[in-house]
Amino acid sequence: MTALAESRISRTGDEQRRHRRHLMVRHTKNWIRMGLGIIFLIGMLFPVYWMLNISLQGSGTTLTSSVFPLHPDFAGYRTAIADQGGHLLTSLIIAIGTVVVTLVIAAPCAYALAQFRFRWISWALLAILISQMIPGIVIANALYALYQRLDLLDSIPGLIIANAANAIPFGILIMRSFMLGVPPSIVEAARVDGAGRLRAFLSIVVPISRNSLITVGLFSFLFAWSDFVFALTLTTKGTIVPVTLGIYTYLGAHVANWSPVMATAVLASIPAIILLIIAQRYIAAGAVGGAVK
Amino acid sequence: MSQAQLAARGREASPSAPTGPTGSRRWRHWREEIAKTLFVVPAAFAIVVLFGYPVVKNLTMSFQEYTIRTFFTGEAPWVGLTNYVTVISEELFTKTVINTALFTVGSIVGQFIIGMLLALFFHRHFPLHGVLRALFLLPWLIPLIVGSAAWRAILEQDSGILNVTLAVFGIDPVPWLTSPDVALLAIILVNIWLGIPFNLTLLYSGLQDIPDELYEAGALDGATGWRAFWNITWPNLRAVVSVVLMLGVVYTLKVLDIILGLTHGGPANATQTIATQSYQRSFVEFKFGEGAALSNILIVISLAFAVVYLRATRRQVDE
Questions:
Q1: Closest Cα partner for A197 from B297, B189, B8?
Q2: I need a surface site. Which of A139, A191, A200, B17 has the fewest CB within 10 A?
């Protein structure tokens, strides 16, 4: 503080002017950087914008569409909801189911791997890391044969279980890295007061680890909502159609009218957009934690 | 719930247990161990069923004639290495492997370079820097099939905005997704677009972890700009870089959504990869044995990279 005050006193008018010019240059540079950032972002998000734009074009052929939806026409959305509304609902149920299954299965395991001293912990972590690398098509191949016997093909529980495969290892790793920081003493205190391990876990560890549970919940939702491989392979009759499969079916035929396709695509992007707006910090935590820690 | 009840009941029972003090202590120790283990049992079961079983099942399937008939008759005769011989000796196999390699390498190089440049760009603070960086994540959060659909509309030969724009500059329409010459390039470009947010996010967080003092000390020695990057940033980022690259490879190898959504492996198998071929065999032709053989080849390739990845993370932990 004193050094700062001294330097301010001793600074001559010339130095002050130079300092001010330096600040102004930095200021200008910052604005240029922001401008560049916006340009990069526009480039990056153009496909998303274009999707929105075409979804609002009435005629539907991309040739006649204008660059801005000056006369928005919601016919595409009417068709999309009529065709795919049920599929959106199916995806929503599957995604919520996956979140519940993932949290119930992964959270206790994450806690145990973080706090209990098992001799085989490093092996368990290795298995979890490797399991994340097994291609979805391998799991689909085997689950198809299994589901055929268990009568789980074309069923919502079947898809929930398959989607949990993506989310459980990820969830364990994220929550474990968070729960490593839970002080064992507070759990012990509750145990002394007569709480069982499960009660102590539910009433103390879960509330403390809330943020990591939210991160995992959000990502499990996105994994299941975005799932295409299992939707494509573990359904055969067309009775259960998640929206990703609905879009794929739209794309399979020659697309004459793009506006309902793009309208469905926009509707299928809503969870991602909502999460990006309201839960951005959790998403950044998940993106980094899942891969590195 | 039952676990808590069990534990509670055990607590009531143990003081009056007829065993001696050592016996009751041993019993309590065992109960503790069982209670602890119960926390991991559901997850262990899930991982065995959802990963262990599929890996083993794929292995056995690949040595069997496992077709749609198997589901009705229950018979899957053992055929040894026939499935592997069939898929490898097929003319398409070489092309599939080359496509997989080009798709993976092209995607990773593009994603990594652009992601790195953007991470360095966003490492500097400027107005709106957090918001802009967050919005970059959007393409990564939307379902892959949605991204594919958007690009299908953009790349359409006759009326897609890309060709319409190129026409303004007098360039003839390019059949992006319908010509065998450019289709692979087109899907690589789309996959680069999809991978940028992931690379940006991880590399950015890696840059954040490099202490500012290193740059300050470097600046005193005259290391600024490029020299600072090569001498300070790059060596300190190495662990993150290897993780990003390995994960990128493992994720790219198994991509199905983008290719099926954009080209369905066509035109003339120009975008067929090992993953799409495996899907094709199993779920279009219902030759599960051959599909399993191909997906096992995919696992072996992925695991080779996984080993590198694990060594990289271990090194990172050690440091």
A1: B8
A2: B17
